[in-house]
Amino acid sequence: MSETTTAAExxxxxxxxxxxxxxxxxRWQDFWEEKGTYEAPNPEGxxxxxxxxxxxPKKFIMxxxxxxxxxxxxxxxxxxxxxxxxxxxxxxxxxHNVLHTLGFDAFxxxxxxYAVQTGTHPRVSTEANIVNMRRQLRRLGLGxxxxxxxxxxxxxxxxxxxxxxxxxxxxxxxxxxxxxxxxDTLVAQFEAGTRQTPDGRSWSELSDVERANVLGxxxxxxxxxxxxxxxxxxxxxxxxxxxxxxxRSERGNYPVFKAKLRQWNMRITxxxxxxxxxxxxxxxxxxxxxxxxxxIGRSEGARVDFPVGDEKITVFTTRQDTLFGATYMVxxxxxPLIAGAEDGDGTGSLVPDAWPEGTHEVWTGGHATPAExxxxxxxxxxxxxxxxxxxxxxxxxxxxxxxxxTNPVSGEQVPVFIADYVLMGYGTGAIMAxxxxxxxxxxxxxxxxxxMRCVVEPTDGRGTDPATWDDAFASYDxxxxxxxxxxxxxxxxxxxxxxxxxxxxxxxxxxxxxTVNYRLRDWLFxxxxxxxxxxxxxxxxxxxxxxxxxxxxxxxxxxxxxxSPRTFDADDADTQPETPLSRNEDWVNVTLDLGDGxxxxxxxxxxxxxxxxxxxxxxxxxxxxxxxxxVDRDVEQYWMxxxxxxxxxxxxxxxxxxxxxxxxxxxxxxxxxxxxxxGHVSSAEPFHKLYNQGMIQAYVYRDSRGIAVxxxxxxEHDGGVFYYEGGKVSRLLGKMGKSxxxxxxxxxxxxxxxxxxxxxYEMAMGxxxxxxxxxxxxxxxxxxxxxxxxxxxxxxxxxxxxxxxxEPDDATLRALHKAIDGxxxxxANLRFNTAIAxxxxxxxxxxxxxxxVSRTVAEQLVLLIAPLAPHIAEELWRRxxxxxxxVHADFPxxxxxxxxxxxxTCVVQIKGKVKARLEVAxxxxxxxxxxxxxxxxxxxxxxxxxGIRKVIVRAPKLVNIVPA
Length: 964
Prior knowledge:
Layout: H1 7-11, H2 18-35, H3 51-54, E1 58-63, H4 79-93, E2 97-100, H5 109-118, H6 122-139, H7 155-169, E3 171-174, E4 179-182, H8 183-192, H9 208-216, E5 221-231, E6 236-238, E7 257-266, H10 272-277, H11 286-296, E8 299-308, E9 311-317, E10 328-331, H12 370-382, H13 386-390, E11 399-406, E12 413-418, E13 430-433, H14 439-447, H15 495-508, E14 512-517, E15 523-524, E16 537-539, E17 545-547, H16 585-588, E18 589-593, E19 598-603, H17 617-622, H18 633-640, E20 653-656, H19 663-677, E21 690-692, E22 696-702, E23 708-709, E24 714-717, E25 720-723, E26 727-728, E27 730-734, H20 746-753, H21 755-764, E28 772-773, H22 780-791, H23 810-828, H24 832-849, H25 855-865, H26 870-879, H27 896-899, E29 904-910, E30 913-920, H28 926-935, H29 937-943, E31 948-954, E32 958-963
Parallel strand pairs: 1-2, 1-20, 10-12, 20-21, 22-28, 29-32
Antiparallel strand pairs: 3-4, 5-6, 5-7, 7-15, 8-9, 8-14, 10-13, 11-12, 16-17, 16-19, 18-19, 22-23, 22-27, 24-25, 25-26, 29-30, 31-32
């Protein structure tokens, strides 16, 4: 006996220990890989295979793309991966052809920032991270089809990302077809004259540049000069969705400013209605659907023109019924009609050289001219985030532009202001202010001494003079008043009728129309970074954008010496981006033959955002080796096509975090719909069923300075928590992560207990969709479950199988089939914690019963736990004499006769107090149960001859007697 060998180990050399678990797990992982156990055959193509499997019902199960972090996995990361693996294993065992794999979303900012900091090329560090994560994931026994795994940084993958971009670039949204169509169909309309050009000239009269500009107004991918979110600290622009609520970058937490730059955009707004409408048929959490609906922000109203000299200000309003109450107007500081005023030269078309006579002093902001006032205010507004601008600040700010507009219904001249509470990102960037009936307008009017007019009759007794009010009156149920003009009157109408009447009146005069507005903005698709997909676009000498032909794809990311973006002082808004690719002159300036002879071109030097590769990866999983097509049509139809209950098709189960409710999910839905419209896929939606897993949390310990200290180096005593180096620390439940010094790696847990124990613990911690705290001390509970399971099948002293070929007793059969019935339901509904509880209950029953376990029961117990703890299940299945893998064994089916209890306990109450308990048949009728309860001696004694007013029977579990 060695010094490290214990007596228990000598007595039980075949006990299930961490060492034995490690041996079992490594052997079966090698076996699965060698035999291709998890390979899912396609009906067509290079991955076509087993016809019998293809003939089964299919099940496509996916996890959200992981990012290959340099820190590797902590135990919080694989929660969703283990859950989908358990579900996929159960689906295989219930007769499905299951596609389950995992790739890596490897472009993006984190890898580039790490590369900049360390001097390591992002490809080198990213590929090393992928190798490490693959090792960690393999150790968990995840049943992925490794043939299908993809990496977004592989040119063979991003060739098709670029190809999809070109499909979008070469498409337009045809409102008559309510679908995307090839841009050539639009050109044909212009050529035939069935669609007019903007200035009325024939298509043949337009120059190449003019034609490109016209088509750019229709293309689903287009470049434009527009206000963007510029982040100097990152050296790049950001999409709206990448800016936090407090106006800072999602990554890095840097300030974000508005700037006007030429950038690529995706016309996702064309799909706003379909993105809303198709949510109804998706099996998604209601909270996620609501977030998408709110982000798209559909609202019905009217567009109304307010003349201003030779110009007009167009507003969108949902309360056109209150037009007679509009006493002033407000433009966003970025509104194009005042562009140029920031230079102080008065070149904005709405900004005069001098203040009109009689201008109120409070309107000027103390400036000598309108141009000065507007320029100063625009600079002030540019330093605020959109959230700050819309916050309910006590003091309202703004400045008069120096011009008046005409209210189209009353003819009244109303002053035009700019104010930061109006944004260009919603509506038209201009509002008609009805201060009597809008809280913000009311506060602004009071601050600037502007008139108010009541046009919606108050129902709270305040009267109709706004000068006496403390706040605006807002209502959709009151009557319209004070709203009569020379040829229209809304007085006495309800809001709905008034809106319809005024909208018709506006449309008849060509000064307005009913319309729908959306909060959704087009998707900003450019990034001034290196580590991303290059755009397959080149520009000719006239600046016209040309798509590269498919034969030139992939356009590979060039090697550069300096891949750092130029960053600036985080607070310096007056800066411009400089892209790393623009410094590579040999790559940027090229001679190409695009079909009309060799010419010089300039490449696009922005790269695509990190969202691009994850917009379509579900399709590449289907057909990863296809070099000729995005995906084979038959293969896509098989795995993702529409079917009963899934009218738009899509992945059968998609599991990931709720934090992607808008960004990734909305973008992927948009790309899927474009590809569907163009006939490349049969599925109009990428993900039919979405499930959001919770988060594994951990305690964060901080010292008196607020600095996180290593969780492994604290201890509890004397009623507090102490860090051995620095005294008492605070403790708060939060995220798990390397920076918080509380990360626990799966490698640590696997080494101490084995991967099956880790899998069981993560699934047993609580409902999958609820966040839960990690407790390393509690892991041992699942370890002991596996030890007891092993002991019920294998002799710890000899290693021999101990099961017997005898029939189990009736009590064991009932315990077995109840477990089978319950686990089957729990597995199908992702209730893995309760499934484990039922397996534990059955295993404990066998342990308490003593003696050898019946082979029948042992085999079905192994099958029940196989999806959850596949390594030990595979080992025991083989030791029980089976030659095939447990992965493809049939999941047990419960015998209904044993699921139903022989008897149930019925509680008998008198006046709500329990007087007796009866053991009755589950199928007993109400009449028989009532008779049995009334005949029970304890009940007879309790009634003591009293009459009975009513007997309430809830067979088979309750009888409630109400005495007279």
